[in-house]
Design goal:
The chain is of the alpha+beta class. The protein has eight helices and 13 strands. It has a five-stranded antiparallel sheet with strand order 3-4-5-6-11.
């Protein structure tokens, strides 16, 4: 519906379109070749003249804000209720992490519907009369400040936020709830991890198992100059917690000549030159997999941090901040290599509460 179809008595009063503040238009001439064409005639929206249409728009905006509130509540519920390692099939994405999908969907919906509601409110219910304002000095005069205050009050009145209570209340509810999404995420910065980062599955008496053969290791299985990857006894690849636990418990087993070991503690914690070090780089947690026999150096392939296994696995190159933790090992009565305890310090990169 255009302004031509609306009776004049229903149209809001407005100033003549296309005129400046003095009621005149500029005319092109030699001195001013670019004339001010003025503003085009204002086209009234259906909501300006039909209260039923305005109420329909109001309900649409309120519905969008309400959906935002529900989506925020769903975000919090998903964060608490969905296991972090649960996977689901979503066409056409395939198998994806259920928690990530739920958080992205609910938070995206909450933010989108707030924006969509605000845009629909502005497009259909707020005043859309075109206004021109002359340029003014940067420093505001008292009169201008008073005019700005008056414009603000007028804008508040034209937005109908006082009269459209349904929109106002649902908007305030949506804006109040959506920050809770970020607040809930702060849970992971708190003490909930407890001491899980400080301990692994290694305990006194745990057999050292070859990752490739899944068999316990004997000293005779480890040749001088070889590199063997190992895991704790009982940790199976098909177990639910395998990835979480192997990320902390993965071992490198290397056999050196005892006379080549420079660090006294490393020699005491070894068995016949067999040393066990964490496989997890202390920079950002990449698995170390490259070993050089002549120098006894191991290299992290991600950022080239290099550690000397003959000298307490200290850092000799790269961005890693500290040496690899060593696991104290021995041999049990049956001749198998075993751990004599857990790592003395947390494995992997440093974290905020590590002391």
């Amino acid at each position: 519906m255009s302004s031509h179809d609306i009776p004049e008595e229903n149209l809001p009063a407005e100033a003549s379109a296309g005129h400046d503040e003095h009621g005149t238009l500029s005319v092109a001439d030699e001195k001013n070749p670019f004339a001010d064409p003025g503003l085009p005639p204002h086209e009234h929206r259906i909501q300006d003249v039909d209260e039923k249409a305005a109420r329909r728009s109001e309900r649409v905006v309120a519905l969008l804000f309400t959906i935002s509130m529900l989506a925020t509540v769903a975000f919090i519920a998903a964060y608490v209720a969905i296991p972090h390692d649960k996977a689901i099939f979503v066409f056409p994405l395939g198998h994806i992490n259920a928690l990530n999908f739920a958080l992205g969907l609910t938070l995206g919906t909450a933010l989108f519907t707030i924006g969509a509601g605000a845009v629909h409110w502005a497009r259909t219910l707020m005043s859309d009369v075109e206004m021109a304002d002359e340029r003014h000095p940067i420093e505001a005069s008292p009169e201008l400040r008073a005019q700005i205050h008056e414009d603000f009050r007028q804008g508040t009145a034209e937005s109908a936020i006082g009269r459209r209570k349904l929109i106002r209340n649902t908007m305030l509810g949506a804006l109040t709830l959506v920050p809770l999404s970020g607040l809930v995420l702060l849970r992971d910065l708190g003490p909930l991890p407890e001491d899980k980062l400080r301990h692994t599955l290694w305990r006194k008496g745990k057999l050292i198992v070859n990752m490739n053969t899944n068999e316990p290791l004997r000293p005779s299985d480890v040749a001088v100059g070889s590199l063997t990857f190992a895991k704790p006894e009982g940790l199976e690849e098909d177990s639910h917690e395998f990835q979480n636990e192997i990320a902390k418990a993965a071992l490198m087993i290397v056999r050196l000549q005892p006379q080549d070991i420079k660090d006294k503690q490393e020699l005491e914690w070894s068995h016949e030159g067999i040393v066990a070090y964490s496989k997890i780089c202390t920079h950002v947690g990449c698995p170390i997999s490259l070993y050089e026999q002549q120098t006894h150096h191991v290299l992290c392939p991600c950022h080239q941090s290099t550690f000397d296994l003959s000298d307490g696995a200290r850092v000799i190159f790269g961005p890693a901040g500290h040496a690899l933790p060593q696991l104290r090992i021995g041999v049990n009565d049956e001749g198998y290599l075993e751990a004599l305890g857990d790592f003395e310090e947390p494995v992997g990169p440093a974290f905020w509460e590590r002391g």
